[in-house]
Amino acid sequence: MEISDEVKVSLVTAVCVLALAIISKNILQVELDFITQYGPVWLFITYIITRGKEKSSGKPLIWSATIIIVTIAILFLYSF
Prior knowledge:
The chain is mostly helical. Helices cover 72% and strands 0% of the residues. The protein is elongated, with a radius of gyration of 13 Å.
């Protein structure tokens, strides 16, 4: 049984949203606004919309890495 690409990217998105919420609230002690709090979700929605348009835009590894990098960038920007 193989997991589909959409499920893989959605699991990465879920982990990133949870990590973003936990780290921002408990470690950084900042409150994120609506747009940045759901940053990984916005990228996942973009992945779902564009996955069938071009061959290069549908690669789940690239989208998963992008979601992780954006999550780290949000945490980095709010740490100051």
